[in-house]
Design a protein that fits this description.
Strand content: 5-15%
CATH topology: GMP Synthetase, Chain A, domain 3
Helix content: 40-55%
Order of helices and strands: HEEHHEHH
CATH superfamily: ANL, C-terminal domain
CATH class: Alpha Beta
Number of strands: 3
Radius of gyration: 14 Å
Number of domains: 1
């Protein structure tokens, strides 16, 4: 089903609000977590929705994932999606983890280029 521009804007506003809450929660709970972003192709919504959780260093990301914080981030994403009335399953398929350190090393700090490498597929 194609979404109208109005529906897309409504979804986007709700999603930004709920993911902002998830981000602030994670910043308070996780060492080295910096920010998150999301990407979506509304012609393939919600399958194309992807949330990227970004840590400062690879060491902090590895530590967080090893200590079970990956599951916590997926759970925070699930709450954000639910509060935005977005149904996807499994939520973990829409979550990825990255680092500022790796973006700097591989993409010279260009996040637009880095995120484009795994952009959601068009429907």
């Amino acid at each position: 089903m194609l979404l109208s521009k109005r529906d897309q804007a409504r979804i986007e506003r709700r999603l930004v609000a709920t993911l902002t809450e998830a981000c602030e929660t994670a910043k308070a709970e996780m060492t080295g977590f910096s920010w998150l972003t999301h990407e979506v192709d509304y012609t393939a919504f919600p399958a194309s929705l992807r949330v990227t959780w970004v840590f400062d260093t690879l060491a902090n990301k590895s530590q967080a994932l090893a200590s079970g914080q990956g599951e916590r981030m997926v759970a925070l994403t699930a709450v954000a999606f639910s509060e935005a009335d977005i149904l996807v399953s499994p939520v973990s398929a829409h979550v990825q983890f990255d680092t500022e350190e790796e973006c700097q090393r591989v993409n010279a700090g260009n996040w637009q280029q880095r995120l484009a490498r795994t952009r959601p597929a068009r429907g």
